[in-house]
Specification:
alpha/beta, Rossmann fold, Helicase, Ruva Protein, domain 3, 4 domains, 6-stranded mixed sheet, AAA+_ATPase
Length: 493
């Protein structure tokens, strides 16, 4: 009897121990699955392999500076970088420290990425490209880890150019909007650490691109990091001519096409815009089964880039809306031609796919500086459409068609006050973009006063030229489009 009791108690103990072991195994298995899942989420597939999908690599870059039209100053600024990567010992003998980083800054579409590729191509260096947005992650440590992998890969393939597009996504001012999280700060710090850790013999240059140099963190652009800043601006007349030549290669242009004249008509267009013009012109020619690209195709392409395609279905546009649009665009044209002495290649009241009821193409000419009077007159040109509506249809019947004009006029007036120091009340001040806000009552009051004053001047100017306004508007209602020659003849009388 005692023997049976002992066996029973021993069996109970063994059972308890076995259950505990099985339970522990199950818990460990579940914890392991959760850990693996979290690791997979925190470090996506592209981060776990040796070659990250968050940057692309190219050993043999075929792009050279000869392939980059315009931007001669930017190319000259980077020439010593090429020489250093080709022959670093020559520079080291003189104790020269080559810049660790270069910032290419300027408007979108001006060729910053192409310049970075050409730099690698000229120097015979590996080109490793990524974007600042690839380092912005919600998971802890991912951004910093990607930075480390990027630089580790570059060190294996020297000489190398690391290109980071949209650097402001990861290198924006800390504490400002968009870079306020601790994770963003850690990523930026890791970038700074990697650049500080460069050895003199590593032959790695970091090239970054941004549209907003003023938004970058001060620690990023100080000496010893991105200490060379290269402006890549919109092309001037000669540069536009060269860019058009590049993008018209192997395209059957009509003999009537004068690329220099096209360059004169495309002020403020970027290299990307000009490429788009020639490409769209070729598409129009193909659609028409034409054997060559004519001026008409290029003209349509320019209109598409600037204003969008013309809408084919206009059945929902009433006669009154068409009339309002005609006077609105005539108002813009009169101020541009008579007051500002600007070229106006085309005025149209045909609605476009970009939402415009009509448009007035203005070629403002190219000047390095603008006087206060010229800026005020340009604001007047923007307000000319609204002024014409009020004169013809009355203050109670003005439309919302001037919305974009008013936005641009307000921005121009605000820039005059806060950037150029041309305000009578505020005087010689120039603010950082982050300091500018129309919530500031003084700025709002001064901006409103300038716009009100210019609008009154615009009303008076159009009233004096009301006969010309009528002639231009009526011509638009009859033909829908007026070119510059027609406009000049209409305004002679």
């Amino acid at each position: 009897m005692e023997h049976k009791v002992i066996i029973k108690e021993s069996s109970s103990v063994y059972s308890t121990i076995l259950n505990f072991i099985l339970f522990s195994i199950i818990i460990s298995f579940v914890i392991g699955l959760i850990a693996r899942y979290r690791k997979k989420e925190a470090f996506p597939a592209g981060m776990r392999g040796a070659n990250s999908e968050h940057f692309s690599e190219s050993k043999d870059v075929n792009v050279k500076f000869s392939d980059v039209a315009g931007n001669s100053e930017a190319k000259d600024n980077m020439q010593d970088i090429i020489e250093f990567l080709k022959d670093p010992d020559r520079f080291k003998k003189f104790g020269v420290k080559i810049p660790k980083g270069i910032i290419l800054y300027g408007p979108p579409g001006t060729g910053k990425t192409l310049l970075a590729k050409a730099l690698a191509g000229e120097a015979g260096a590996s080109f490793i490209a990524t974007s600042g947005s690839n380092f912005v992650e919600k998971y802890v440590g991912v951004g910093a880890s990607r930075i480390r992998k990027l630089f580790t890969e570059a060190r294996k393939k020297t000489p190398a150019i690391i290109f980071i597009d949209e650097i402001d996504a990861v290198g924006g001012k800390r504490g400002s909007e968009g870079t306020s999280t601790s994770e963003d700060a850690k990523t930026l710090n890791q970038l700074l650490v990697e650049m500080d850790g460069f050895k003199d013999d590593e032959n790695i240059i970091v090239v970054a691109a941004t549209n907003r140099l003023d938004m970058l963190d001060d620690a990023l652009i100080r000496a010893g990091r991105f200490d060379r800043h290269v402006m890549v601006g919109l092309p001037d007349l000669n540069a536009r001519h060269e860019i058009l030549k590049v993008h018209s290669k192997n395209k059957p242009l009509s003999k009537e096409v004068d690329l220099l004249q096209i360059a004169k008509q495309t002020v403020y267009m970027s290299g990307a815009d000009l490429s788009g013009v020639m490409n769209e012109a070729a598409i129009y020619a193909i659609k028409e089964n034409s054997t060559e690209i004519t001026l008409r195709h290029i003209d349509r392409a320019i209109n598409k880039i600037v204003a969008g395609d013309e809408k084919k279905d206009r059945s929902n546009i009433s006669d009154l809306e068409k009339k309002i649009t005609a006077y609105h665009e005539a108002g813009h044209a009169i101020i541009a031609k008579l007051l500002n002495k600007e070229s106006v290649p085309k005025v149209s009241i045909i609605p476009t796919t970009k939402g415009a009821a009509g448009y007035t193409l203005i070629n403002p000419g190219e000047k390095m500086f603008q006087t206060k009077e010229e800026i005020l007159n340009k604001i007047s040109g923007l307000l000319g459409g609204r002024a014409a509506e009020e004169i013809i249809f009355g203050k109670q019947n003005i439309t919302g068609g001037a919305s974009n004009d008013l936005q641009r006029a307000t921005k121009m007036a605000l820039t005059l006050i806060t950037k150029y120091g041309m305000s009578e009340k505020l005087g010689l001040v120039s603010f950082d973009d982050r300091e500018i806000s129309l919530q500031n009552e003084l700025l709002l009051s001064e901006t409103k006063q300038i716009l009100d004053k210019i609008y009154k001047k615009t009303l008076d100017y159009i009233l004096v030229n009301k006969d010309k306004l009528e002639v231009v508007a009526q011509r638009l209602l009859s033909y829908e489009i007026i070119d510059e020659n027609d406009l000049d003849m209409l305004l002679v009388g």
